[in-house]
Amino acid sequence: MSGRVIVAGGGAAGLSAAIAAAENGNAVTILERLPRVGKKILLTGNGRCNLGHEGFDFSHYHGSVKQAARILADFDVKAYFRRFGLLTRTDSEGRIYPMSGTAASVLDALRFAAEQRGVQTLCEKQVTGLSPKNGKWTVFCGDERFSADAVILAAGGAAAPNCGTDGSLYPILRKMGYTIVPPVPALCPVPTDPARVRALKGLRVRAAVSAVCGNRVLKQETGEVQFTDTALSGICLFNLSRLAAEYGSRMEIALDLLPEIPVQETAPLLDGMLDQRGDLPAGDLLTGLLPKRIAETCIKQCGGNCGEPASALSAETVGRLTALLRDWRFPVTGTAKFAQAQVTAGGVAGECVTDTLGSRLHKGLFFCGELLDLDGDCGGYNLTWAWISALTAADNLGHA
Ligand SMILES: Cc1cc2nc3c(=O)[nH]c(=O)nc-3n(C[C@H](O)[C@H](O)[C@H](O)COP(=O)(O)OP(=O)(O)OC[C@H]3O[C@@H](n4cnc5c(N)ncnc54)[C@H](O)[C@@H]3O)c2cc1C
Fold it and tell me: Potential cystine with 366: which of 16, 73, 152, 188 (Cβ 3.0-4.6 Å)?
């Protein structure tokens, strides 16, 4: 197709879609509600932008857009950015970052590429409505109207609303007949009983972390757990957080504080500690294994007195401690807020879009990025989806 294309949203997906649509010979305009495009890109990866991940494994993605597996399979994110003069570097865990080490380089690469291809960028234009008529589209921004042959919706989800993503397109699309899988915050801390974590605020510990419902382990991750005054946080908790939204208070978080040590060695290990440190206060018994405040909290929770000699701990307390170190449970008390979330789980349902992300309901309408019901784990998976979903939509404008 070569015609007039409007891209709603100037984030990761919107910029990529606009560049590709312009390369295909279209006259492209981005409508972005904030004063500048790409605000969220600057915050990604703690300002370093984890823009992709080595290899392809669809198990890192969740949601109803099953078409994504085929779309993602052959995408080479490093080659994609190299075309725009941006080189990358991969860390030991396969995460891909810009070689410059700064997210600003990624936004610059996309902005320059868009400018070079003649993309028009209009900021402070919030899309408030869409209307198809006689094979053309009218896009409304309040009282203003823009006409187009095709529209690519790239307005993101509802996570991180300070970056312009307030979910404002969901009600508009619902009215147009689209199924919106209820949006919930994902990649966010998991709230728990503040009384259980307040004393541990600011501490970090390495653990195997399981999302548990009854006796069923739903998912397990190993990594650093961070305690806040109301939640458990850290990358592995982020990766379990969409389950917290799904299971709510039926779910618990279980921490195995000694993931490198076989379970059957826990009791002998504690016996050895009691031999070596029996004369020390019980609060110091486990400081060779764990941060002191965490060690003390575990002992107290098992009924021990941290001020008394460790040798005075009862056999029952030591037994409870042996179990707790491998399975320390925290209730899930709710869902974090969108303001604390990196992505949105939910959005436009997979059944509403074709294999190339065109609408099944309206000719000339396309979807990409986080607006769709697809979310990835931490590690560059979400931006990968933003780039390639945008390319897919923009390269197939003529095929809807
Ligand atoms: C703090 C943080 C860190 C992250 N780090 C990473 C990371 O390192 N790696 C990774 O893969 N993912 C990361 N993510 C997730 C990733 O940034 C998003 O999944 C990705 O940006 C989604 O791209 P998008 O273009 O679909 O939406 P967005 O990038 O959110 O862009 C949507 C744009 O649309 C605009 N908009 C919204 N509504 C309208 C409207 N009605 N009219 C006009 N414009 C509108 C918004 O202002 C915004 O500019 C992170 C997210 C956050 C919040």
Answer: 152
